Amino acid sequence: LLSFLKYRTFFCYTLIRLKKPSNILETGVAAGISSSLILAALKKNNAGTLTSIDLPPRLGMKEFKTLDKDVGVLVPENFKKQWIFKNGDSKKLLGQLLFKSKPQIFIHDSLHEYKHMLFEYVNSWMIMKKDSLILTDDLLLGQNGKNKAWFDFLKLSNLKGLSFIKNENFGLTTIK
Q: What is the pTM for the complete model shown?
């Protein structure tokens, strides 16, 4: 299997199939690999919507050679009925989309900087309902000195989280 198809992507697919959420909100799309698998799970569930926020990369993504016009290029046309794509900055769009879509799952996979990651985690935690899930990719990248945004968020929110660091660099928590 291609190296960019990580286990966490299939974990998300399985989680969505089991939880059957009506709404999912993600930040970060890039070429759309994760978005496509999320949408595949929603399509198989025959219900649910994925709302995605992304700012196109200005210089392209070296892994996929994704240019601005190619964000979401891997999302199949027959999945797009269940997909709402918002081109913009999550700092401007996240709050209103959390209130509007009331997601049961929030997935961070956008700008992996400490302040930005903490912003997304805290806002989703404050707005989402009990038993909703927050997932994060690349949790080791959000660093401020020795502090990491994901672990600081878990302490701040007093939530317990699963962190798959060794191979996947991926985290999950449930809002209590």
A: 0.90
